[in-house]
């Protein structure tokens, strides 16, 4: 790679560009995690998290990845051999299925084409059929980071309600929380799983579980072995502003600052900003004569757009050119989408001109890779930005 | 608390004072964890970790606390109902025992008085008696952070060897690695567990497992459910410089810098520095007419010193005065030592004058709390520093 | 202003976007400016500055602005009542003239139209006419930050040589050094004046004088009062790596890092990069149907482009929209250009996609301000970037 | 030097240990110095400076060292050949005298022994004798950084008043402002000169002039050539939150934070803290059987203590040992005090335990250099800290 100057464009769908404010906050000296100053910080952060999840209940914070937070959701609520209903929405849903199986759960996996979200109709059908209530949890990836498709969680909830089914609703919001509209309490979610490195604008290293009363009840009977992930000692220690083991102090400093930024902007405005940037990005994709992977406009993702190339064209060749010539990272195609799509992240700490630079880089990269896309894509995106 | 000026003295036995160099390194922009620049970083860090553990085998890095790394050690090597041999060396050994029980293991717990390390004699006795080899692992806390006692790991190893016992040897080095002499390979340890926030001079947020061949073999048969903690996918992905889930990028930046610092100083010199500071601290404690909690001089810890107050005196009262008057955090007495001891951390990024300031603060705090300790403690410590 | 998210686009022609590496370097603890570690730093920085100026002679570093470095150039070389030849190339040349007058010098000011550089022909004429050698110094602004016009310094030197005129040649490179080709020794410059906040990629706060032998000789006879700016004690103290008064330590840390970055990229490559971005910017301006202020293509600036709006159109209205809607700072019209031009900085730590974002912001801002410029400007710029 | 670990002890009398908060604030991205956000910052900082100087008048901030601010005080108020009254209080007073001479002023220099402050009696005598009012300014160094002696400025003012003398009173507070009691308005000072790197807790790089109405009047008639240092354009531009040339943006960020810290602690408390630490330091010096250089207890400095060694003993040998063995920088003897004294800075961002570490280092260094000082010095200092 040639020498790079200027700022790298990190336009993968997460980790996202961490704000300078957050990086500076994280560089404060580490403090005593058993002292009064830490307790103030912890309580402030734990309170400020609630509105971001849309919950009045507890949010458990782990020093972990988002994947760790998935494991926490499962081991706290389920017992060996329990059946869970999952939906093949893409790569991350598939990984979650594998995790469930590794932990000794039985997975009912609704097949999918990786261009649609979790099907509320299929959910309804499976739940209705489960008269014995063998399904103990329904697992949905709210925003599939591998596809840029956003599942309609309230409709999955409605399916549960219509079937009068007692299964828990577990939702992965790794690439949606703090970017897309999300309401843990109002949507009747039992465990919301997320990580720090996307809409929360932090480096990776924190995992989260927002937990409903019903999930807490379930955790009392759940028999998957658990210790590190156990909610109860965390929630108990959090009362006083502490943790049962050493928390990731400096990431919590960053979280404190990031939550302040989200509050300053306002969640509704944050969601609107992401939706607007996503719409501009899709305008660009269409202007280039290419397809957005997401096949249902009700499920367009506000945080990333997966661009599908014509058959026989290598998406990774575009990514390579864009990285080498323009110092921008784009997301690769994952799993069965390898080589077929690239993904543009437009989430987190982001603005119009960074999107413009991003789309300019994609457009030039496509041309250089031999796609005669012309300038209309970027022009259409700018029209959208300018007039909305 | 009154307004604080100057630098806080963080003299708990970890988290330790993170070097400015490390904090600055951590504030670099987050990058693409699937890109070539990250792969270079990951390989460099994974290589540089090996000599610090004294191993030529793999070191698995988790986005987690040290406690998480304990769980990893257990779930990768053991099966439900397996028996493990633990030693009641203090609070953290007791927590590890609880974790093992929570995960479905059966713990044989050698009782202790919290003033000695794991007894090689007791180990020999239990192992010799275990003709059926029901004990699958021996768990030792190398340096008990709650007591300032360092167990003699090579003698435990010798007991295993003498008994020709196949049990794995799992060692917690959370408060010793990068501070005290430690040799994973040479000492025949199977899993070494540690965290980032002590001798590695980072904020908390990373957990580590150094893994022997024998442990890897054991992991193939182990049946405790595991997914997040599973070594295999991590070790496989690490080959190419990647991780199976999003790693804690910015902590890895810091680790890269911290490992550079350890290499610059030289591990032998790092160990000698800690030993020298510990000896100076004990000289101070004796100069004050107080007792070091550790009852066996072969087991004095180089990274912290627990100071035992006379019966009826409240150690937390001293800590409170020291925090409020002198802006220094000392370690509290944990578990059964609550109120009886305070702990002085002298590990990590540390030097003679910071130790002098630390001991001056303890001395003044003791006086203010009504202990007529006089000036001889600090004077003895300075004598030690000056003449060694 | 609405809430801002993402990174501000600081596209004024300086201060420029300071690299994160430089900001982090500046945040290291301040050290003893009389100690050995500082001396190492100072010598390293003073050496590394020389190639950037293209000199083998001394470079004097002041804790000051670039304006202070102008004053240093004058008071070290001239005496009360001395005549200096200046050229009305724009706002900063006019300020330099005023400074010379304030300090008691007599200024011969060659008038100009603010669209051309210093005229070598006019220089030749004035110098030829000055048979008595009353002109003691010729002052040229290499790159007029107010107009985006680069004077042809070698041709001014040629005029001095042709006239066999002994006047000193003083050159302001505030917005060109580290961005445009510049050669202090090869071009026969006597004092090169610059500041830290443009091509050197630092925050403002340092001023520089590169000094020829001839200028040093002149300083021995010069009689303008001087103390703070006096070269001699600085150059003398610099031998040992020190300064006669407290230097701006942390800015020097940043300078150390910035010079490392310039060396990594390579000066020739730095110059080529700036020229390429300038050409792309001019392509955009033409694509919008607007005029570049600079009227002579030999004098196009590589570091900034001033865009001239049609008569009656307010350039500051465009700037205001761009700042409020797109969080980008553009340069205002200065002096007689107020309201008539805006200036786009494309210098320092910069890259293709940031330029693309910048030009996208200008294009949208022009449209929103009622200029029907259409999308061709940005498209032309991207064509240039993609194919060069 | 051997490898250094832990934090360097920067105990020269400035630059001082910059708080982490300030370093972090300084690492924010540079912004447009002509934009609205900068104007807010500038106005906030300029307002917050006033109480620190004890003035309701303007404070002019230069991108410069404190020495530059001296030059500003002289060139704004005086004319060639003007007489100024200076006092030989130490090295910095001597440098100021040299500067005045270099700038074309005539200096009446009251001799001194470098162990006392400016003599109010001598001042009275000289002023009374100056019936023709040829003395245009009286220059006093409030706190002589080379000696640790604080001149009694109010008594100098009283001498001026008693003589009914119209001379301006110019005071250097480089090592006192923000540390020692100081009141520009109440004490009738005309120009207060300071720098950023001591009590203001910033890195070096900013110079300051607080300016009285009378000084402003004098500036209208003063004829020393000036341009960069001219108060008027700065004060005029400051009205709107701007500067006539590019200000040192990132140091201003730091100043903003440092002023916030001074306000949080409270100036009276800041002064008391410095006085207390100075008293403890003197107790140590006496406990070691050594002499404080300052010979008049009314003039003890709160910000530094110069320690006088017995005849024939080399103070720099002590400093060298302390630096190499204990990684602490102490101030060297300057000018005629070279080798005779070392100076302990106890100013700025500082606290009891850092002082304890500092004095422990000095005590050990003295012993190692062959001074049998024993432990009583540090013990006495700690007694003072503990009981006050």
From TrEMBL, chains A, B, C, D:
Domain Aminotransferase class V: start-end pairs: 10-287
Residues bearing the modification N6-(pyridoxal phosphate)lysine: 198
GO molecular function: alanine-glyoxylate transaminase activity; L-serine-pyruvate transaminase activity
Highest taxon of the lineage: Bacteria
Residues where substrate binds: 343
Gene3D superfamilies (alphabetical): Aspartate Aminotransferase, domain 1 (3.90.1150.10), Type I PLP-dependent aspartate aminotransferase-like (Major domain) (3.40.640.10)
Keyword Cell inner membrane found: no
Single GO biological process annotation from the record: glycine biosynthetic process, by transamination of glyoxylate
Keyword Lyase: no
The entry's keywords: Aminotransferase, Pyridoxal phosphate, Transferase
Signal sequence segment: none
Pfam family, one: Aminotran_5
Cofactor list: pyridoxal 5'-phosphate
InterPro entries named in the record: Aminotrans_V_dom (IPR000192), PyrdxlP-dep_Trfase (IPR015424), PyrdxlP-dep_Trfase_major (IPR015421), PyrdxlP-dep_Trfase_small (IPR015422), SP_NH2Trfase/AEP_transaminase (IPR024169)
Function: Soluble hydrogenase catalyzes both production and consumption of hydrogen from suitable artificial electron donors or acceptors. This subunit catalyzes the tritium-exchange activity.
Similarity section: Belongs to the class-V pyridoxal-phosphate-dependent aminotransferase family.
Record's subunit section: Heterodimer of a large and a small subunit.
Stated name of the protein: Tritium exchange subunit
Organism whose genome encodes this protein: Streptomyces aurantiacus JA 4570
Lineage, opening ranks: Bacteria, Bacillati, Actinomycetota, Actinomycetes, Kitasatosporales
């Amino acid at each position: 790679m040639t020498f790079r100057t200027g700022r790298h464009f990190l336009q993968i769908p997460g980790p996202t560009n961490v704000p300078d404010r957050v990086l500076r906050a994280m560089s404060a000296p580490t403090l005593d995690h058993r002292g009064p100053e830490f307790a103030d910080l912890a309580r402030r952060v734990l309170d400020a998290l609630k509105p971001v999840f849309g919950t009045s209940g507890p949010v458990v914070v782990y020093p972990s990845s988002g994947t760790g937070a998935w494991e926490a959701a499962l081991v706290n609520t389920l017992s060996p051999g329990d059946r869970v209903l999952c939906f093949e929405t893409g790569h991350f849903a598939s990984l979650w299925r594998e995790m469930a199986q590794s932990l000794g759960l039985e997975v009912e996996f609704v097949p999918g084409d990786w261009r649609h979200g979790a099907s509320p109709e299929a959910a309804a059908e499976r739940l209705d059929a489960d008269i014995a209530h063998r399904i103990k949890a329904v697992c949905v990836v709210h925003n599939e980071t591998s596809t840029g498709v956003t599942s309609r969680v309230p409709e999955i909830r409605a399916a549960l309600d219509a079937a009068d089914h007692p299964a828990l609703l577990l939702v992965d919001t790794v690439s949606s929380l703090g970017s897309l509209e999300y309401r843990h309490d109002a949507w009747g979610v039992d465990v919301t799983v997320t990580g720090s490195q996307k809409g929360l604008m932090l480096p990776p290293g924190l995992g989260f579980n927002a937990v409903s009363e019903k999930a807490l009840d379930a955790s009392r009977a759940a028999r998957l072995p658990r210790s590190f992930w156990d909610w109860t000692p965390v929630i108990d220690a959090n009362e006083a502003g502490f943790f049962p083991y050493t928390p990731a102090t400096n990431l919590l400093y960053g979280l404190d600052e990031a939550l302040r930024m989200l509050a300053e902007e306002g969640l509704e405005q944050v969601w609107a900003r992401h939706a607007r940037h996503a719409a501009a990005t899709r305008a660009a994709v269409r202007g280039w004569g290419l397809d957005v992977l997401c096949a249902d406009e009700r499920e367009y993702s506000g945080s990333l757009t997966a661009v599908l190339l014509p058959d026989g064209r290598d998406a990774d060749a575009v990514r390579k050119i864009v990285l080498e010539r323009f110092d921008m990272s784009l997301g690769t195609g994952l799993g069965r989408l390898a080589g077929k799509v690239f993904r543009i992240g437009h989430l987190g700490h982001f603005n119009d001109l960074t999107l413009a630079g991003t789309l300019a880089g994609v457009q030039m990269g496509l041309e250089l890779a031999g796609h005669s896309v012309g300038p209309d894509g970027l022009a259409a995106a700018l029209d959208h930005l300018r007039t909305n």
